[in-house]
Amino acid sequence: MDALAGFPAYAIAPDWTITGWNAAYAELYPNVATVEPADRNLLWLVFTDPYVRRLLPDWEVTSRRFLAEFRAEAVGDLTGTPVIQRLLAVSRPFRDGWSSHDIEGFASRERVFLHPERGRLRFEHHRLAPAGQTHLHVVIYTPVEDA
């Protein structure tokens, strides 16, 4: 991922644990390097980290979309998994989204972030599946041309 210098990128496991990231992603989301490994799950961070909530100007839409995408990729009943149980216990927006049972496949799209130091950032959000690591996805944000 370091070869993607300048483009924020991270790797995510099937349960949405963030397993790796590059320096550009750490600049966009500095907490990724300091959060406890058990909490380094994209769903957990989206629904519990105030920094992420401030970073996403459309948090209510984006958080629900992430949850719908997670459901689309999940296999089996996930209610008993630790991250889901923890989120059900601590996040009302998560509980509301979880009970809606929305499902939506991933689609590349434009994403906007409100970075505390760099201001409004616009990226195209893409997800790649490395041929040799089919259990991982690499998420990459490429700058929008006029950004």
SSE layout:
Layout: E1 9-12, E2 18-21, H1 23-28, H2 42-48, H3 50-55, H4 59-73, H5 82-90, H6 92-100, E3 109-115, E4 119-128, E5 137-143
Antiparallel strand pairs: 1-2, 1-5, 3-4, 4-5
Helix pairs in contact: 2-5, 4-6, 5-6
> C-alpha Rg, in Å?
15 Å
Physical arrangement of strands within the biggest beta sheet? 2-1-5-4-3
Overall pLDDT confidence: 90
CATH architecture: 2-Layer Sandwich
End-to-end Cα distance, whole Å, is 22 Å
- CATH class label: Alpha Beta
The share of residues in extended strands comes to 15-25%
CATH topology: Beta-Lactamase
Annotation, overall tally of beta strands: 5
Based on Cα principal axes, name the global outline.
globular
**Strand/helix succession:** EEHHHHHHEEE
> Which class do the helix and strand fractions yield?
alpha+beta
In total, how many domains does the architecture comprise? Answer: 1
Question: What is this entry, summarized?
Answer:
By secondary structure, this protein is an alpha+beta fold.
Describe the structure in your own words.
The protein is globular, with a radius of gyration of 15 Å. The two termini are 22 Å apart. It has a single domain, classed as Beta-Lactamase. It has helices at residues 23-28, 42-48, 50-55, 59-73, 82-90, 92-100; strands at residues 9-12, 18-21, 109-115, 119-128, 137-143. The longest helix is centred in the middle third of the chain and has 15 residues, at 59-73. A hairpin with an 8-residue loop joins strand 4 (119-128) and strand 5. It is of the alpha+beta class and 147 residues long. It is built from six helices and five strands. A five-stranded antiparallel beta sheet has the order 2-1-5-4-3.
